[in-house]
Amino acid sequence: MTHERTNTPQFRLGRLLITPNAQGKLPETDIQVGLLRHSQGDWGDVDADDWQANHVAVTEGTRILSAYVSENGTRFWIISEADRSATTVLLPEDY
Q1: Which residue from 18, 62, 69, 77 has the highest number of Cβ atoms inside 10 Å of its Cβ?
Q2: Burial, 81: exposed, middle or buried (Cβ in 10 Å; 0-12, 13-18, 19+)?
């Protein structure tokens, strides 16, 4: 899917959190690139419905979920809370 990523953040990430499992399995560079993509509106590997829901969430203030795959093949998610108080990096099994 073609993304509408901008070069500037579309929303604030709030407090950055990461689960111990994700921290142990993801390269730091992939985490940083994922957070940048997430904040700029590139939601990664989500379906068209979730992609659209994330765009709406930016303006309506609901939860945003992005999905990426790291260089080592580990799938991970980034979730920003509806109130933008926190953004968490986690593996799907951590949810």
Answers
A1: 77
A2: middle
- Taken in order 21, 46, 38, 51, the sign of the CA dihedral is negative
Q: What is the pLDDT of residues 20-60, one digit of tens each?
A: 999 999 999 999 999 999 999 999 999 999 999 999 999 99
Domain ranges of the chain: 15-94
The DSSP output letter for 44 is: B
Distance CA 42, CA 44 (A): 6
User: What tokens does 93 get?
Assistant: 């099994």
- Which phi and psi (to 5°) does residue 67 adopt? -135, 130
Q: Rounded to two decimals, what is the model's pTM?
A: 0.92
Over the range 13-50, which residues count as b (16 or more CB within 10 Å of their CB) and which as e? beeeebbeebeeebeeebbeebbebbbbbbbbebeeeb
